[in-house]
């Protein structure tokens, strides 16, 4: 006789042993097909850095053309557009998204919330290998006849599909297929990050005790899961248009005097779908950076984070608002002006939670015991860069200001400041902060500072001056400015200066790579918890943490993540897993 | 004022938003009675719902922008039975089958709750068969329409976007059904073999098998059925 009532109530977590960690049995399952989130994280980050270096070289080639038009025979107009397109798409999707969510998300979420691993390690591993496949498909575009697509990173139809656009035969197909694969792979990882944060926290770890890093990655992942559908659908419809001759996005077009077979499609629909993904994507990159920088500032200023609760709610507010602003990318698309007014208003509203964050970072520094080590330097560099990028965003969010500045270098400068340089500075800061945890050794301090100063000053020069070029009216995406009457000759001189700076900044990245490799093998051995941080990832029994993170006993959490310089405590920090009794001397 | 703020009667009064706030401010789990797998399926369904929403909104937008008239779906999807035209007959049968499979799925979940191995396996098998019939009928529908000249770029009845929307919407949904069937057949096999009674470990994941998989499968299956209702209403009926 089955006890119907006992069973019929459904399945409850208490009925199962969920926290199983599949231990690797061979070299292959330990280092290659590993289900350990920390190994997956390093695989994700390593692949993303590799793609990033390719994108960096592409940016060099573009800058060489802009500074010395026509001096390099192999950079013709087609190649230039292919470099632009691949640089943009690689950096935004395959580098920044992958490194923040796949890299730092995987490494830090389980450790920071006191879990042993992600909820579903196998799916997590699959996520990386799918991402790698997406990268390989993307890179295959370089070796196909016609090369990769040169439609600009937004890949707008109809131009992206028309003959005459470089890579319109194979490159564009490969690009969209790669995006579809990337989205599938990311979804597997993203589901893991969300469920892990929601359901796998340590005893005592409430949502309002999570470090801001976890909050940033958590909200960004939810946003990604809801925003990528727009890109997925746009990609599939574009593939239908390109491969099946459908006309989702293709209007009636006359090319070379002959009408094409397409008719009745809506190019604007593509823009809506693309930017429904594209704008949240900005914050998918920015929110993890916001979170990480909050933790770095608090740790290295030895002071609690100012306004933690407000920071959390600002993060959520940015996440919600960013789904209502995509139209500000389409002010000149012929959209109804009433929509323009709506999107301008919602765009400017985002400035409020963002400003709350900036003020809170600065108040965190106020009268803190600031240690100017590399993580702090990168974080300060981030604030300075981000404020410039954020303020120019206010210019572009207004319709009347956006219309003349649209498609000039002002836009390029703005988004490189706000979602290029700023998050990348945070990545560097995060690498220097968590390097001891990953490797058990310290990064070389002098080399890291050298890298910081060259990168920070160089990128600041590049993109700050680029705003000026934009105000002069220098258009973006132009292969050659030619003899345009309104562009003064001084623009050419400034373009050369920017290119020289870009070459130097790019070369400086190899200082970081050298530092990383050298320190991984020969760096000074790190003490446990070298920065005196409160968060759980530094309280592991070993450093680097073992596969199940915590050995025999998983931690219990007694406090928030920011107990720095607590009056009366015997040290200037109290780890999250330290009970009340031991806190005071 | 000396109000007793400790638990007790006040605990019972808590409802709605207060309970939700309690859940979200608790440690360990936000959704207390929910296993990891189930939580994951819910989050996946949320994202997938956005995908289908984008598809359907895209189809509606393109239907508005196209320059030609939209075909009359009642005529296009007509079957002739004994010389008599019956509009939407095949679609109605398909919808009936898919919705019935939701019913057998629900019964299978109930059997899983009660750990009734054979009944659960049989009901899952019935669900698989109903789903397979749906896919088979969909293949028939595609074949018929392709024979009648429906292409992603052209058809004889009106706007070419009708064909491309049809293939993309029903195709993407059909892929969901097919993938679901593959997983469900595997789960049915595991139930029948008793994997979930013995806690046999999975081949890839190394996790212990458990009857909960049936319920998680059911979440996905009900979602796919629900999406079909929207496609039915917004594409076939309109």
TrEMBL record, chain A:
<dbReference type="GO" id="GO:0009060">
    <property type="term" value="P:aerobic respiration"/>
</dbReference>
<keyword id="KW-0812">Transmembrane</keyword>
<dbReference type="GO" id="GO:0020037">
    <property type="term" value="F:heme binding"/>
</dbReference>
<dbReference type="Pfam" id="PF00115">
    <property type="entry name" value="COX1"/>
</dbReference>
<dbReference type="InterPro" id="IPR023616">
    <property type="entry name" value="Cyt_c_oxase-like_su1_dom"/>
</dbReference>
<keyword id="KW-0679">Respiratory chain</keyword>
<dbReference type="GO" id="GO:0015990">
    <property type="term" value="P:electron transport coupled proton transport"/>
</dbReference>
<keyword id="KW-0479">Metal-binding</keyword>
<feature type="transmembrane region" description="Helical">
    <location>
        <begin position="409"/>
        <end position="431"/>
    </location>
</feature>
<feature type="transmembrane region" description="Helical">
    <location>
        <begin position="128"/>
        <end position="147"/>
    </location>
</feature>
<feature type="transmembrane region" description="Helical">
    <location>
        <begin position="377"/>
        <end position="397"/>
    </location>
</feature>
<feature type="transmembrane region" description="Helical">
    <location>
        <begin position="214"/>
        <end position="239"/>
    </location>
</feature>
<feature type="transmembrane region" description="Helical">
    <location>
        <begin position="452"/>
        <end position="471"/>
    </location>
</feature>
<feature type="domain" description="Cytochrome oxidase subunit I profile">
    <location>
        <begin position="22"/>
        <end position="558"/>
    </location>
</feature>
<dbReference type="InterPro" id="IPR000883">
    <property type="entry name" value="Cyt_C_Oxase_1"/>
</dbReference>
<protein>
    <submittedName>
        <fullName>Cytochrome c oxidase subunit 1</fullName>
    </submittedName>
</protein>
<dbReference type="GO" id="GO:0004129">
    <property type="term" value="F:cytochrome-c oxidase activity"/>
</dbReference>
<feature type="transmembrane region" description="Helical">
    <location>
        <begin position="491"/>
        <end position="517"/>
    </location>
</feature>
<keyword id="KW-0349">Heme</keyword>
<feature type="transmembrane region" description="Helical">
    <location>
        <begin position="310"/>
        <end position="332"/>
    </location>
</feature>
<dbReference type="InterPro" id="IPR036927">
    <property type="entry name" value="Cyt_c_oxase-like_su1_sf"/>
</dbReference>
<feature type="transmembrane region" description="Helical">
    <location>
        <begin position="282"/>
        <end position="298"/>
    </location>
</feature>
Automatic annotation (TrEMBL), chain B:
<dbReference type="InterPro" id="IPR000298">
    <property type="entry name" value="Cyt_c_oxidase-like_su3"/>
</dbReference>
<keyword id="KW-1003">Cell membrane</keyword>
<dbReference type="InterPro" id="IPR024791">
    <property type="entry name" value="Cyt_c/ubiquinol_Oxase_su3"/>
</dbReference>
<feature type="transmembrane region" description="Helical">
    <location>
        <begin position="159"/>
        <end position="183"/>
    </location>
</feature>
<dbReference type="InterPro" id="IPR035973">
    <property type="entry name" value="Cyt_c_oxidase_su3-like_sf"/>
</dbReference>
<comment type="similarity">
    <text>Belongs to the cytochrome c oxidase subunit 3 family.</text>
</comment>
<keyword id="KW-1133">Transmembrane helix</keyword>
<feature type="domain" description="Heme-copper oxidase subunit III family profile">
    <location>
        <begin position="41"/>
        <end position="238"/>
    </location>
</feature>
<feature type="transmembrane region" description="Helical">
    <location>
        <begin position="86"/>
        <end position="109"/>
    </location>
</feature>
<comment type="function">
    <text>Cytochrome bo(3) ubiquinol terminal oxidase is the component of the aerobic respiratory chain of E.coli that predominates when cells are grown at high aeration. Has proton pump activity across the membrane in addition to electron transfer, pumping 2 protons/electron.</text>
</comment>
<feature type="transmembrane region" description="Helical">
    <location>
        <begin position="217"/>
        <end position="237"/>
    </location>
</feature>
<dbReference type="InterPro" id="IPR013833">
    <property type="entry name" value="Cyt_c_oxidase_su3_a-hlx"/>
</dbReference>
<dbReference type="GO" id="GO:0005886">
    <property type="term" value="C:plasma membrane"/>
</dbReference>
<dbReference type="Pfam" id="PF00510">
    <property type="entry name" value="COX3"/>
</dbReference>
<feature type="transmembrane region" description="Helical">
    <location>
        <begin position="39"/>
        <end position="62"/>
    </location>
</feature>
<dbReference type="GO" id="GO:0019646">
    <property type="term" value="P:aerobic electron transport chain"/>
</dbReference>
<comment type="subunit">
    <text>Heterooctamer of two A chains, two B chains, two C chains and two D chains.</text>
</comment>
<feature type="transmembrane region" description="Helical">
    <location>
        <begin position="121"/>
        <end position="139"/>
    </location>
</feature>
<keyword id="KW-0812">Transmembrane</keyword>
<dbReference type="GO" id="GO:0004129">
    <property type="term" value="F:cytochrome-c oxidase activity"/>
</dbReference>
<protein>
    <recommendedName>
        <fullName>Cytochrome bo(3) ubiquinol oxidase subunit 3</fullName>
    </recommendedName>
</protein>
<keyword id="KW-0472">Membrane</keyword>
């Amino acid at each position: 006789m089955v006890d119907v009532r006992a069973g019929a109530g459904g399945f409850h977590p208490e009925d199962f042993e969920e926290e199983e960690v599949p231990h690797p049995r061979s070299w292959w399952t330990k280092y290659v097909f590993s289900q350990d989130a920390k190994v997956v994280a390093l695989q994700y980050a390593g692949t993303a850095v590799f793609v990033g270096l390719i994108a960096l070289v592409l940016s060099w080639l573009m800058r060489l053309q802009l500074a010395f038009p026509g001096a390099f025979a192999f950079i013709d107009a087609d190649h230039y557009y292919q470099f632009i397109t691949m640089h943009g798409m690689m950096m935004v999707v395959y580098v920044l998204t992958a490194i923040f969510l796949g890299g730092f998300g995987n490494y830090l979420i389980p450790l920071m919330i006191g879990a042993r691993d992600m909820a579903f390690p196998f799916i997590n591993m699959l996520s990386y290998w799918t991402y790698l496949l997406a990268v390989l498909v993307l890179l295959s575009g370089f070796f196909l006849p016609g090369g990769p697509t040169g439609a600009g990173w937004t890949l707008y139809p109809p131009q992206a599909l028309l003959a005459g656009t470089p890579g319109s035969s194979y490159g564009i197909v490969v690009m969209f297929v790669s995006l579809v694969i990337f989205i599938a792979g990311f979804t597997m990882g993203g589901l893991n990050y969300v469920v892990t944060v929601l359901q796998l926290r340590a005893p005592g770890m409430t949502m309002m005790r999570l470090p801001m890093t976890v909050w940033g990655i958590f909200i960004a992942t939810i946003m990604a899961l809801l925003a990528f559908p727009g890109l997925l659908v746009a990609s599939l419809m574009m593939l239908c248009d390109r491969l099946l001759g459908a006309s989702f996005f293709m209007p009636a077009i006359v090319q070379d005097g002959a009408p094409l077979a397409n008719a009745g499609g809506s190019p604007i629909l593509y823009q809506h779908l693309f930017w429904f993904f594209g704008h949240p994507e900005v914050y998918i990159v920015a929110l993890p950076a916001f979170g990480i920088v909050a933790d770095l500032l608090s740790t290295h200023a030895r002071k609690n984070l100012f306004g933690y609760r407000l920071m959390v709610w600002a993060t959520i507010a940015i996440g919600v608002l960013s789904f209502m602003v995509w139209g500000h990318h389409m002010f000149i698309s012929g959209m109804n002006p009433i929509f323009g007014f709506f999107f301008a208003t919602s765009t400017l509203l985002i400035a409020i939670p963002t400003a709350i964050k900036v003020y809170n970072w600065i108040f965190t520094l106020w009268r803190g015991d600031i240690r100017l080590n590399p993580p702090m330097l990168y974080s300060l560099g981030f604030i300075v860069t981000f404020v410039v990028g954020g303020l120019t965003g206010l210019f572009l969010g207004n319709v009347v200001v956006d219309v003349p500045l649209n498609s000039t270098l002002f836009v390029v400068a703005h988004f490189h400041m706000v979602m290029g340089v700023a998050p990348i500075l945070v990545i560097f800061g995060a690498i220097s902060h968590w390097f001891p945890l990953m490797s058990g050794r310290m990064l070389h301090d002098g080399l890291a500072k050298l890298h910081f100063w060259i990168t920070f000053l160089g990128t600041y020069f590049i993109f700050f001056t680029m705003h000026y070029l934009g105000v002069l009216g220098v258009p973006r995406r132009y292969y050659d400015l030619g003899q345009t009457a309104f562009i003064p000759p001084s623009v050419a001189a400034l373009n050369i200066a920017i290119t020289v700076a870009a070459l130097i900044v790019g070369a400086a990245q190899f200082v970081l790579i050298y530092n990383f490799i050298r320190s991984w093998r020969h760096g000074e051995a790190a003490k446990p918890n070298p920065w005196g941080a409160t968060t759980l990832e530094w309280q592991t029994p070993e450093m680097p943490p073992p596969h199940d993170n915590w050995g025999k006993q998983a931690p219990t959490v007694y406090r928030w993540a920011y107990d720095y310089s607590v009056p009366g405590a015997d040290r200037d920090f109290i780890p999250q897993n330290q009970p009340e009794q031991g806190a005071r001397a | 004022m000396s109000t007793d703020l400790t638990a007790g009667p006040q605990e019972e009064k808590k409802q709605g938003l207060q309970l939700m706030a309690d859940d979200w401010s608790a440690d360990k789990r936000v959704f207390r009675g929910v296993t990891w797998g189930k939580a994951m399926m819910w989050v996946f369904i949320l994202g997938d719902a956005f995908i289908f929403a984008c598809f359907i909104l895209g189809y509606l937008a393109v239907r508005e922008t196209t320059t030609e008239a939209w075909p009359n779906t009642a005529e296009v999807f007509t079957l002739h039975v004994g010389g008599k035209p019956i509009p939407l007959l095949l679609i109605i049968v398909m919808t009936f089958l898919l919705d019935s499979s939701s019913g057998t799925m629900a019964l299978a979940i109930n059997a899983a709750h009660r750990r009734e191995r054979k009944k659960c396996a049989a009901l899952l098998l019935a669900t698989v068969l109903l789903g397979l019939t749906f896919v088979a009928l969909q293949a028939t529908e595609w074949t018929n329409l392709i024979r009648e000249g429906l292409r992603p770029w052209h058809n004889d009845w009106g706007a070419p976007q009708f064909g491309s929307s049809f293939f993309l919407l029903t195709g993407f949904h059909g892929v969901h059904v097919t993938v679901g069937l593959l997983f469900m057949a595997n789960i049915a096999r595991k139930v029948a073999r008793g994997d979930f009674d013995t806690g046999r470990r999975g081949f890839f994941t190394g996790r212990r098998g458990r009857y909960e998989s049936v319920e998680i499968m059911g979440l996905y299956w009900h979602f796919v059925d629900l999406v079909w209702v929207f496609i039915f209403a917004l594409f076939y009926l309109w």
